[in-house]
């Protein structure tokens, strides 16, 4: 019998693979009272499908992952579009030519567009940090504007520290797009499971070889023996925080009912300059649900305190990476243990990446 700790996407894909491809029995446990991990969604009192742990949009270029999940869900085809409130108006993000023209007077916007296209190809994505270092004073002005008004305030709220002190893996991601493409993601396959993520994960686990027990913590089973344990929980917790707790950013979601059909024109609107929250998600846009009332989630970042709130984003810096390596070395001493997923590997994985990771770990480590 295999044990899988965690019924999120990592655990569920691994369970499906072991059950169907190796014909072995699998026990899946989760300490929460629901499955699907952070993908958990449910219809609320307003008739809107709400994601309890924050908005999740599926997007991938990995055809195999898309085809695989398509066996367990139908898709509502959806291209995510997001906006940011800058100088009081909603403009497309990532920042593109439409954002440029919405924010600057026509002659200045035209000059900046012309300077961008004189130096770069149409359609290119230029990291804001690179543009800050160019010789051209117009382009440096634009980069400074985008950095200060769209990025710095948002980042300070999101990470609780100054944008300049963060790893380039975080800051390097913010581009200026030299086009009018306002899709947030450019992946070939994008969508939202038509019946929700929870149903998709239920379908993954629906196999006679799989037993699911909810409300069960790994600590409850520690004396029991299994062929292998695939652990998708926090690695520092597994070793009783012996090298110190790994730092995470957490979030608080303030869900509100809106007594009219729509609150905002898009699913996601960011607030880089104003308020203490980072963004507002209006959930009905994801499945294009037609309801007389709406539900929004207002997102406040905060420090993660174990036992008090959820660990959401690993904080990538040298100290946390060094502590993680100590835990990883400890785990390597146990040959019945496989670490998988965002908490066990202390890495931000998108959903498609975690599915791909489960495929690879399954092939490499489950005989
Ligand atoms: C706010 C936010 C928005 C996101 N949006 C997107 C998006 O738009 N698109 C995208 O592709 N990805 C998105 N992601 C990433 C996505 O959430 C992850 O890829 C996914 O959750 C990783 O799955 P997992 O199975 O590794 O972890 P999880 O989903 O966290 O599942 C781990 C499970 O293990 C259980 N567990 C932990 N410890 C124990 C224990 N000791 N005993 C029993 N059970 C235990 C937990 O209860 C949990 O259910 C987002 C992440 C965040 C934080």
Structure description:
- With 367 residues, the protein is an alpha/beta fold.
- It has two domains: 2-78 and 189-246 and 314-365, Rossmann fold (3-Layer(aba) Sandwich), CATH 3.40.50.720; 95-177, no CATH class.
- Helices cover 33% and strands 22% of the residues.
- The chain is built from twelve helices and 19 strands.
- Helix 1 (9-21) packs parallel to helix 8 (197-205), helix 1 runs parallel beside helix 12 (351-365) and helix 3 (97-103) runs antiparallel to helix 4 (106-119).
- The two termini are 13 Å apart.
- The model has no long low-confidence stretch (mean pLDDT 95).
- Bound molecules: flavin-adenine dinucleotide.
- The site of flavin-adenine dinucleotide has 34 residues, from helix 1, strand 2 and helix 12.
What's the topology here?
Layout: E1 2-5, H1 9-21, E2 26-30, E3 41-43, E4 49-51, E5 58-60, H2 63-69, E6 75-76, E7 82-86, E8 89-93, H3 97-103, H4 106-119, E9 125-127, H5 128-132, H6 137-159, H7 168-171, E10 175-177, E11 189-193, H8 197-205, E12 210-214, E13 229-231, H9 235-238, E14 248-258, E15 268-270, E16 279-282, H10 284-287, E17 294-303, E18 313-314, H11 318-332, E19 337-339, H12 351-365
Parallel strand pairs: 1-2, 1-13, 2-12, 7-15, 13-19
Antiparallel strand pairs: 3-4, 5-11, 6-11, 7-8, 9-10, 14-17, 14-18, 15-16, 16-17
The chain binds flavin-adenine dinucleotide (FAD).
